[in-house]
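Entry 14. Ran structure prediction on the chain below.
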Amino acid sequence: MATIEDVAKLTGLSRTTISRVINNHPYVSEEKRKLVLEAMEKLGYVPNSSARSLRNQKTSILALFIPRITNPFFSELVEATEIAAAEHGYQLIICQTRYSPEKELNYMNLLKTKQVDGVILASIQNEWKKLKPFLQYGPIVLCNEFDDCANVPTVRLDQVYGGYIATKHLLEQGHTKIAYCSGGYRSNVAQSRETGFKKALAEYKLTFDERYAFRDAFHIADGKRVFHQMMELFERPTAVFTGSDEVAAGIISEALRCGYRIPEDLAVVGFDNQAITELTNPTITTVHQPVKQMAQKAVDIIVEKIQTKKYDVQEIYEFPLQLIVRASTIGNKLHGSEA
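Output, structure tokens:
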């Protein structure tokens, strides 16, 4: 097992400098910090002094990785996961990556140093090949986000179907100029929804117009920005499918402020079925995701893997999605129907 002396020898730095890097001391140059971290990774050095004694012990703590706690979907997932974990006698810690690959890898060291018994990834910022080595230290379960290369259990939703039913609903209302608004394009969730979006268009003999694609939209403010970008187009879309209720609310808010009518001038579909969908005027048509069931299943699985120590088995658990039709796409004709 590698020691701090091994790291010092490999880097040519003193033990004091190595210790400062481990303890995040501010007075260490970025060059030396990077050198030490690379050496620790190469040697497999575990800085946590309690890691050896904990190696065969349980902490009864799980880690949940999310990109942004202020996103209502992830807030609900956090609450549901904490409740499920408590039922199994586990505590939950939240690791907010803020879409940073570096932060995600740093948090994965919690598993490596045995500070947590398992990790639930609700988002993925790195390629699976960078995360896979951590399986030697404990179980990883994917929940919401997915990667077909990952040889671990995955709790997911049929996002292709979600994108399909949302878009088909708009097509059924007579719209042919439909914009698509999503978060990070690198996300498999976002890509799958876009696949469903295109599938619905193809059934109506329509092609996907890249001018109507708006990506990297996550917040209400992004929705306001996207609205103006759509209105600047020569051929404006008459409807938009967004991957977030927050973004949908931002679009609606800005449209109304600028004198546009919803849905007469612009129909809007969100995603998640968060509380905000029933607080806006008009209320928002959206796609419901069974967050509580997903969280419960993810916790059940990871607890089982902790007990059996079978970490590298690919298992897929898929939950259905449901379209909730509200006023943002059909005006006053119908409220709160399910499709």
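The first strand starts at residue 61 and ends at 66. Will compare against last week's run tomorrow.
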